[in-house]
Design goal:
The protein is an alpha+beta fold. It has one domain: Glutaredoxin (3-Layer(aba) Sandwich), CATH 3.40.30. It contains 3 helices and 2 strands.
């Protein structure tokens, strides 16, 4: 839950004008981690085979909610 809280804070800080809320919902199965936007799955840890870096998650979210938005240093590879 600590990692999810950290990521939620990062998303809210980065996408201030685009995200109204982040919901952290404990799963019935330990280790579940999925990110959805408007009920569309953006990332699933199990399907991906593990976690990815926060900058990659921000890029996935940006591509979904505002593709033209610059993420500054997070866009650099």
């Amino acid at each position: 839950m600590l990692r999810a809280a950290y990521m939620a804070q990062e998303f809210l800080t980065t996408f201030t004008d685009h995200i109204e809320a982040v919901i952290l919902k404990p799963g019935t199965i330990s280790g579940v981690f999925a990110i959805s936007v408007d009920d569309q799955l953006v990332f699933d840890r199990k399907a991906n085979g593990g976690f990815i870096e926060i900058k990659e998650l921000k890029q996935l979210l940006r591509d979904k909610i505002n593709p033209g938005m610059s993420l500054g240093h997070s866009d650099k590879k």
